[in-house]
């Protein structure tokens, strides 16, 4: 096993906090909304608010995480890691960051275009930058759905990399984030 250095404690905390929020709250709520829309209107609105509010929280956390990454660069990858693998890992991380920024923005704009204002956790109202526009809402909702598929695939790719490095290469890379 190659010795590896770890990410800064702040980086590890942000990684695991965001992972938990995305995997345990935002994605399940989004799937529930998209494929199992509740008949009870009040419950449906609560579910949307949970999904949207945690989306706003993720947006803020990813911005903090980007600044944190600049202040605390990630530790180097193992020297024996092939160039193609480095490229794939880098592309996956960039893709995740881009989508973690874009998805809340697109979702927020879609919500506004459908004619619904956003109040984060029903406490903090966020002004609507766009008015009700059903045609725009359909486009933004489609983009949000496509982004959800893309982020799901990137997460699966990220997890596949974790499995590969842990059980096949056995290079200790996972310890960097623990």
Provide the helix percentage: 55-70%
Q: Which stretches are low in confidence, meaning pLDDT under 50 for 5 or more residues running? A: none
Average of per-residue pLDDT values: 95
Query: What global shape is seen?
Result: elongated
Task: Find the count of extended strands (DSSP E, 2+ residues).
Answer: 2
Rg result: 18 Å
What are its keywords?
single chain; 178 residues; mainly alpha; two-stranded antiparallel sheet; 4 helices; 2 strands; 70% helix; 3% strand; elongated; iron
Quick structural gist:
The protein is mainly alpha-helical.
Describe this structure in words.
- Helix content is 70%, strand content 3%.
- The protein is mainly alpha-helical and 178 residues long.
- Strand 1 and strand 2 form a beta hairpin.
- The longest helix is centred in the last third of the chain and has 35 residues, at 134-168.
């Amino acid at each position: 096993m190659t010795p590896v250095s770890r990410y800064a404690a702040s980086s590890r905390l942000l990684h695991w906090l965001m992972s938990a929020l995305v995997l345990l709250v935002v994605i399940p709520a989004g799937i529930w909304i998209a494929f199992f829309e509740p008949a009870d209107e009040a419950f449906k609105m609560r579910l949307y608010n949970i999904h949207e509010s945690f989306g706003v929280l993720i947006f803020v956390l990813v911005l903090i995480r980007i600044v944190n990454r600049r202040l605390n660069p990630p530790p180097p990858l193992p020297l024996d890691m092939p160039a193609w693998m480095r490229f794939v890992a880098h592309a996956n991380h960039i893709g995740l960051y881009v989508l973690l920024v874009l998805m809340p923005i697109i979702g927020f704009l879609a919500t506004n275009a459908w004619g619904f204002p956003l109040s984060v956790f029903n406490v903090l109202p966020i002004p609507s930058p766009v008015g009700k526009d059903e045609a725009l809402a359909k486009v933004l909702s489609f983009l949000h759905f496509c982004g959800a598929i893309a982020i799901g695939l990137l997460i699966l790719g990220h997890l596949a990399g974790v499995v590969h490095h842990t059980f096949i290469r056995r290079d200790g890379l996972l310890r960097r984030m623990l």
